[in-house]
Amino acid sequence: MNESIRLRFGKELIKQAAENNFLIFNADTKSCGIEKFGEMYPERNFTFGIAEQNLMAAAAGAALSGEKVFLATFAVFASMRACEQVRTFICYPKLDVTILASHGGLQTGADGASHIAVEDISILRSIPNITIVEPSDYIAGELLVKKAIDFHGPLYIRFPKEATPCIHDKSYNMTIGKANIIKDGHDVTLIASGWILSKAIEAADILKSKGIDAAVIEMHTIKPLDNEAVLNTAKRTGAIVTIEDNTILGGLGSAVMESLSDTYPIPVIRIGILDQFGESGIPDLLYKKNKMSVDNIVDAAYRAIDLKENRLK
Predict the structure, then answer these.
(1) Which of 41 and 35 is assigned the larger pLDDT?
(2) For helices 5-16 and 138-150, what crossing angle results, to 10°?
(3) Residue 196 per-residue DSSP state
(4) pLDDT grade, residue 28 (50/70/90)?
């Protein structure tokens, strides 16, 4: 079943408000389905219009006063229009502000290039003290609400625009900062973040039918990266493919490569948005243009294995 991660998160956040004290700051966007929060808790809801810099600065002020703050806007505006405010007012003093960043990645194709966030993770990953999480389906999104409420420090949660496939069941659990092993394998590892994990799982099934045993890792926390999980799988399979709905420059793939370059260099092939801007278009076509289809992931796995075997000769 396909369902929106961002809307399920918003629904659960409103539900949790009855027993948890936090404020919601909103830009003039319907990004996470939390618009009804103001009707239920008007004294805890603040709307700033299309003024993301003010949104961040005000959230920082409230957090300095001891409040837990959730703020919602589009990822492209949170990471770029208000980048200085996120860096200096929220991250530098390590404040309890959770940024709900919707419309991340190429699923936002219908909204046009100006609203597509293809580089937000790369930008924010370079800022100290921030934690970056990208849930993979609505079950993960719903579970993440309580974990975000209990979390201390700057937290950036990234959501796609559209409904996405359900990957997990009700037994699913996650710990911020710790990767989840979805499938063991010994030939190659597919490491994915966000909803695109579903493509990695599908690619692993295809590889299995061809005699390739692919491990699949859900790296929902992109910063801090679970370096231990990366190192362990690198030693086990000797070849890695990273899959992300973000530019291949500075995101998940770069983080994995940086981690391994210091500890255990092996072949790593990155699947993600190429070095270009997003553009208006049907998301599926944009993913194909950026070589992010399931078939592309399968081909990348073969290339990674070939590089590994040539390296060992």
Answers:
(1) 41
(2) 40
(3) G
(4) confident
Q: Is residue 107 predicted with pLDDT exceeding 80?
A: yes
Report the distance separating Cα 16 and Cα 250, nearest Å: 34
Q: Which amino acid is it at 52?
A: E
Mean pLDDT of 59-64: 97
Burial tier of 189 (Cβ tally within 10 Å: 0-12, 13-18, 19+):
buried
Is a pLDDT exceeding 70 seen at residue 100?
A: yes
Per the structure block, which two tokens stand in for 305? 């294995």
| C-alpha closest to that of 255 among 289, 229, 281 | 229
Helix axes 252-263, 227-237, angle to 10 degrees: 70
Residue 221 · residue 131 · CB < 8 Å: yes
Q: How far apart are CA 106 and CA 104, in angstroms?
A: 7
CA distance 85 to 88: 5
Q: What is the mean pLDDT of the chain?
A: 95
Residue matched to tokens 């936002």: 108
pLDDT at residue 262 in the model: 86
Cβ contacts of 209 within 8 Å, gap of 6 or more: none
Q: Six-digit token pair at 29?
A: 């966007």
Dist. CA 168–CA 151, nearest whole Å: 23
Residue type, 76: V
pLDDT (tens digit per residue) in 149-176: 999 999 999 999 999 999 999 899 999 9
Q: What is the pTM of this model?
A: 0.96
Separation between Cα atoms, residue 6 and residue 103, nearest integer Å: 9
Within 8 A by CB and 6+ apart from 274, the residues are 247, 248, 290, 291
- How many helices and strands (H and E) does the chain possess? 12, 14
Q: How far apart are CA 83 and CA 99, in angstroms?
A: 12
Could you tell me if 149 and 237 are in contact, meaning their C-beta atoms sit under 8 angstroms apart? no
Closest C-alpha among 130, 212, 214, 137 to residue 176: 130
For residue 108, the model assigns a pLDDT of 87
